[in-house]
User: Fold this.
Amino acid sequence: MPLHPDARYVTDVAPSSGRLVAPRADLAADSAALSLDGDWRFRLYPGVDEADAAASEVGFDDSDWDVIDVPSHWVLRGDGAWGRPIYTNVNYPFPLDPPFVPDANPTGDHRRRFSVPAEWVESGRLWLRFDGLESIGRVWLNGVEIGVLRGSRLRNELDVTGLVRAGENVLVVRVSQWSAMSYVEDQDQWWLPGLFRSVTLLRRPDAGLDDLWVQADRDPETGVGVLTIEVTADDAAFPVRVRCAELELDLTLNHARASVEVGVVEPWGADVPRLYRLDVSNAVESVAVNAGFRRVEVVGDAWLVNGRRLRIRGVNRHDFDPVEGRVFDEALVREAMLLMKRSNLNAIRTSHYPPHPGLLDLADELGFWVMDECDIETHGFVHVDWAGNPSDDPQWREVYLDRARRMVERDKNHPCVVAWSLGNESGAGENLAAMAAWIRERDPGRPIHYEGDHSDEHVDLVSRMYAPLEELVRLTEARPGRPIIECEYVHAMGNGAGGIAAYEALFDTNPAFHGGFVWEWRDHGLLTRTPDGTPFYGYGGDFGEVFHDGSFVCDGMVLADGTPTPMLAEYAAVVTPIKLAVGDELTVTNLRHDSSTADLVFAWVHEVDGVAVARGVFQVPAIEPGASASVALPELALDAEGEHWLTVTAALREATPWASAGHVVSTGQRKLAEVARRRPTGSSAAVAEGDGYTLGDARFDRRGALVSVGGLDVTGGGVTLWRAPTENDSLATMGSYELGDPATTGGFGVPGPSSAERWRSVGLDRLTTRVLSLDVSASGLVVVSRLAAAQASVYADVTQRWSWVDGELRLEVAVEPSDGWTVTWPRVGVHLVLPAGYEEASWFGTGPGENYADSRVAARVGRFSAPIDELTVPYAVPQETGHRAELRELVLTGGGLPEFVVTTDDGSDGRPGFAVARHSAEQWAAASHQHELSAPTATHLYVDIAQHGLGSRSCGPDVRPEAALWPRALAGSMAFRVV
Ligand code: IPT
Assistant:
């Protein structure tokens, strides 16, 4: 049965309708407002047709309805009684049949009574504001229908003057999950219906300051500021006074618009977010505006702010919380933004809709370049080659234009907004072109961005996502004289992304590159429970969805619970604007936008084998943005035995609003010398004993596998080539270097099986061992074995030379692949199984975080210690984690167990790295959530001679050739000791 005529509005292709107020700026006014947040009566219907027509009537009895708090998403309340969240990425979770949506269209009636004081209705106007509701709302006030609201992440205001009564009023909002608008809101995120942003009744005085636009320009040459103020209000609203004590400004406007020169001003920028507070007032209302003086321009291939090219060290950010969904919490968001600042991030793309306005207030205050993106995405049409795409269908033109208007008008006063983005992944078309034209006309002061149309005709910034290096280089030729950015890159899903430093190095080669925005800030795991009550962060499929996109919603630099992943530290180290080159001297380069290095202390420490022996501070002159300076290294004594390292840090001299004094902005390191140690000689003989062999204090079984060391159960010791695939190993959305020649494929390679699929196809996850020979001699035990998988003709031969020297068990390993391998190897590692119970690890090697061949910038050489549980990262999907390259010495302690010590040698293939974990690669690979891992029964130690890089192939380029582990002869040596 088709929709009842009364319910057909849900499939109308139209902007909001009803008693709408023209879109206007988000203003901090002193006029009264009544928050309607809090408890509302709530009833959920299976479809819009089933909604109770009488519910809109004033006298309707809702006393038996449920209660819901606003703002909220009803699917995140009610313990499943009100439905569950659904996750899809590109796909629509309903048939592609625009503008229609399924009959099963969860529809929630929200009812609230509120009282207003009598004087509110006696004079002036009353406006009802909705900051966000998903995806469509029909609204009645005191039984009168006042509007149909569309545009989930955009503000709507309705003029309800004359409808509000003194005393009790009844507001009813009927929100449906699906509507025609869902076709243009196909962002990669949870579908979360509800009244998820505030509802407010505003008392608007007659002749109030309805809309204001303050443009604060600053001449980059002279520093002179010009304020242009535009007031949209009744004639009776004038004169309007604009005051700013700091600027000694007191201006009276008698008409809508005025410009005034205010002398030399300090610029607003992401490094130094200098705001001037303006008071704009008239007889009835006063509004506070934070003005930031800056000029944004695109000149040739330069995207300039205040005359300097921007370098975007950015991140894509969604409004997201694992409990509340898209409901905004100022304190939590501030905390996250402080962490961004401490991680050297200076820019945010508000993927993929205008954020809660509070985000922009924080960005103004703390200093972030913001790309404000409109609430438009039609990605699912890509599956039908964009046939019927709303972006190019005249029927949708007004919807697109309306959204552009509502974004620009709401957010126009924010100095942080330095670009408007038309939306995301919506193909190409006339409606996008019309949006660009409207925005350009309305606000020529900010460039326009949109990635989805690679003709780049309607935009000021040439933008790509996940483009590999080669594609970016090609773009500089294809789009000469234009600024280039990556609006999404280095996909932070699971363990990765690797290869960040290669982008940074490329960006340094050509000024047309303005940097990029990481995809993305945070995993969108939603807090839920297993049937037996274990809490966990769920992803697609964990909420009973029949059709979903799995863990692709967990791809952030911080986990769902807010814990930073190692990628955040890696990104911070790669993009730091303070470059420290420690060579024969220290060279400091300042790539900040607008502050010198005067706020930094440059300290050094000299360590021998990771132990500090001397410290000092460099006298570095204040370096201006874009400049460098060099100073001499300290004179140091380098005769002690061991490795001599000089580590330099640039740290904050004083606390800032985002970090405490001493916060490290950049680190540089150099090995100064290595004075060789004397090595003990003289080894014990191996002897056959019982069912196996004895070598010093070590025992082996009859096939030469380790059984114990110094009386401690230490088993295995064989070579493994397998790692639990990362999501970059197991997903292959965008092609692979393994298959494609970068020169002919633009660098993406051609689509092909993922690394994990290839690895499994040759049985790397199920290798078997056959001992080829076992030599027992006076110098030890030599075991040669062959690793191969069922039905495979390729193999690897492993030679293990065990010896007992000076109280420790030494192992030299050599691995030799057969001919015919066509896949990379995940790792070449020695796997030892120790008793469960070890608690702590301390090591001399690289750290503090995990690091791989293509993610090693944040790692430094030194001594570190950590609880074993913190050596691995609980990614949403269990996967390879915890590798730290170039180990020298590792000590495991705790659990009442004897100390277990591992040392390595620096050989022809470098020093092995290590990982210690509660679970094995096989156990990780078999689980799809952390809570599926069984209780630990062992401590797993991997000493890796090599590991494959990480890459970014879950969405982007594969591991680059220089970090790929192709089968080759490899060797390493290590020693084990029980104390
Ligand atoms: C790109 C999307 O813009 C973003 O929303 C997110 O889905 C990201 O990828 C992956 O996590 S689209 C991709 C198919 C290039």
